Amino acid sequence: MRTSDLAPGCSPCDQQATSPRPPREEVLATNHWRVAHAFNSALPGWLILLPTRHIAYFAELTAAEAQELGGVIRRLSAALEVVTGCVKTYLMQFSEAEGFGHLHLHLVPRSPTEPREAMGPAVFTYLTSEQAQWILAEELAEIANSIRAAIP
Ligand SMILES: [Zn+2]
């Protein structure tokens, strides 16, 4: 990783430059992708897939980065099924929030008992700025470790 590929002050880039990273920041690390558990989620298993260099949109991905992504999604989805008992995973990408322009994909487990009002795009109700609803740091570390251990 060349530091020139990172954007100083960008949170995912700053984490990429950090070593060692906390468990929730490194559920999976491949050649081109790093996977973190969302820090601001009320839902266990809410994963964020991040390119290891600063990219703002899909068209900037190299062929190698794009090719690796499919396998990462498949492997993480299998791990989420084992750890959370989800029936499917949702995959979303916007990268529109202020300060979060670094391309990132949300990979989210959908529970068999998901309430109708939290299905589809409404699943974003689980991402919240209300810290009282966030999963506690120790629990996040345990969830991240469980998912990592279940990745095929
Ligand atoms: Zn960045």
Automatic annotation (TrEMBL):
UniProt-listed Pfam families: HIT
Region (Disordered): 1-24
Gene Ontology MF annotations: hydrolase activity
Keyword check for Nucleotide-binding: no
Ranges for domain HIT: 44-117
Swiss-Prot/TrEMBL keywords: Hydrolase
Entry annotated with the keyword Hydrolase: yes
InterPro entries per record: Histidine_triad_HIT, HIT-like, HIT-like_sf
A GO BP annotation: nucleotide metabolic process
Motif residue range(s): Histidine triad motif: 102-106
UniProt-listed PANTHER family: ADENOSINE 5'-MONOPHOSPHORAMIDASE HNT1, HIT FAMILY PROTEIN 1
Protein name, as recorded: HIT family hydrolase
Organism of derivation: Intrasporangium oryzae NRRL B-24470
